[in-house]
Write a structure and sequence with these properties.
Helix content is 69%, strand content 2%. It is mainly alpha-helical and 466 residues long. The protein is globular.
């Protein structure tokens, strides 16, 4: 048989998410030999935040990542990400109990029947709700559980898993990135810049509306195309293999127990929003809320104790890949932190901005913040690192501090929905079983549009508003 015959040819496979992330770890480790180590001094402000002291950067002894340190960073990254990793397991386990009741499947069947021919209108409703949550109280990590609901919902309505995932991730991050009063980004950045908290909200709301509308339109256009021709979906082959019945539940009504279970789910989500907004809940409290939900759901379904436990374990099993991906992403950040190269990167890019003409300074700050977000995905973390430098730098460049905050906001927010160092993104894609490369291919046009919008908004703010 000829060695070039079809039987001997291997079909190209996209690299596994672990391979992509470990490759990035290797590349990052190599750069630690090329980038000099350096540090800024940190001080604690009156609000208890640790911020960078401008003008204090100095080079220090180089500490590049060694062979063993490269592999150790994976474990250290897992340890650093433990809070999020176990949050994913707990939420996944709780949804495993919910899934065992078949309540969501029955609800999807009923919903699909009622929206027959009008399913497309559910997309803007879901995305707008999440965009409001992202733009107001900074919803981000909290959307991970919604992936488990949105993907089956999209498939049942004739779309694909990309549409279901996009409704959640694109919706919440469009709101988060263009937020009008996100306390974790706008609030922190304005506080560091010495501006009144949430000042300039009117302008931000206008920009938010445009930004979110474009995101919703992008997802709806794609969803409509997939509905007409499922074969154009990037996930067509993968979605055909999913163990999701598209018809079995559509003719069945909801039982009283299933209705009660869905009420518990709704109350849980409402409680989540109220807890985050009014009580400052974060991962630990939210995880506890979902544990309570799982137990109550199991009791309503009349599951035996062992059935509840087994359903919880099965739900956790579905989360293993997503949880570990977060650890890989944190491993990359650990390499940059341990090699003391993050501050050096910040120092050099801030100097590049300082050399730009005044007319381009605001755009330069936007570009710097966008690049910085690849190594510091945390919004509040990036604000604490960059704004103590960018705020006084904006004064020197003739750029208002409000515009500097706006540049930070869009630079921090846009890349969260595609950068592989973003733990929420990678965990969500793992849950949706969507390869990162396919997600990047799908979302890249929208990302370019969003960066263009960010540049326009920052320019308009600089020239005509602030």
């Amino acid at each position: 048989m000829s060695k070039n015959s079809p039987k001997t040819r291997k079909k190209f496979e996209f690299p596994h998410s672990f391979i992509i992330l470990f490759g990035l770890m290797i590349i990052t480790a190599i750069t630690t030999y090329l980038i000099p180590a350096g540090q800024y001094e940190r001080v604690v402000d009156e609000n208890g935040r640790t911020i960078v002291a401008d003008g204090t950067y100095q080079t220090i002894e180089s500490t590049p990542t060694g062979f063993m340190q490269l592999f150790e960073s994976l474990h250290l990254g897992m340890v650093d990400a433990a809070e999020i990793i176990f949050f994913i397991f707990i939420v996944g386990g709780s949804f495993g109990i919910l899934a065992a009741t078949k309540s969501i499947e029955a609800a999807f069947g009923s919903l699909t029947k009622k929206l027959n021919g009008k399913e497309i209108f559910l997309i803007p409703v879901i995305m707008l709700f999440l965009a409001i949550c992202g733009g107001s109280w900074g919803m981000a990590e909290e959307v991970i559980p919604f992936i488990l609901i949105a993907v089956p919902l999209a498939l049942r309505m004739g779309f694909d898993s990309m549409t279901g995932t996009a409704m959640i991730l694109v919706g919440v991050y469009a709101g988060f990135g263009s937020a009008f009063m996100n306390p974790f980004t706008v609030g922190v950045a304005q506080g560091i810049a010495g501006l009144p908290t949430f000042s300039g909200m009117g302008v931000r709301i206008v920009f938010w509306l445009i930004f979110v509308a474009v995101a919703i339109a992008y997802v709806m256009i794609y969803a409509r195309k997939v509905r007409k021709d499922p074969t154009i979906s990037l996930m067509y082959e993968e979605d055909k293999k999913r163990d999701i019945s598209l018809d079995d539940q559509s003719s069945q009504g909801l039982t009283k127990r299933q209705v009660a279970i869905l009420v518990v789910l709704a109350l849980t989500l409402v409680g989540l929003a109220v807890g985050v907004i009014t009580q400052g809940w974060y991962i630990t409290e939210i995880a506890a809320l979902f544990v309570i939900m799982g137990i109550v759901v199991g009791i309503i379904a009349r599951f035996r104790m062992n059935e509840i436990a087994n359903a919880f374990v099965k739900g956790c099993e579905e989360m293993v890949q997503g949880a570990l991906i977060v650890g890989f992403a944190y491993g990359i950040l650990r390499i940059l932190q341990d090699s003391n190269t993050i501050d050096t990167i910040l120092y050099f890019v801030s100097n590049l901005v300082a050399d730009l003409p005044t007319a381009l300074a605001a755009i330069g700050m936007f570009v710097v913040q966008s690049l910085l977000n690849f190594i510091v995905p945390s919004g509040s973390g990036q604000a604490a690192i960059s704004m103590p430098i960018m705020a006084p730098l904006s004064d020197l460049l003739g750029v208002s501090r409000q515009t500097a905050v706006l540049a930070f906001q869009y630079g921090d927010g846009i890349s969260n929905v595609f950068t592989p160092t973003a733990g929420v993104l990678m965990a969500s894609l793992a849950l949706a079983k969507i390869p990162w490369i396919k997600w990047l291919k799908w979302i890249l046009p929208l990302i370019l549009i969003q960066y263009a919008l960010g540049a326009i908004f920052v320019t308009v703010a600089h020239l005509f508003i602030w």
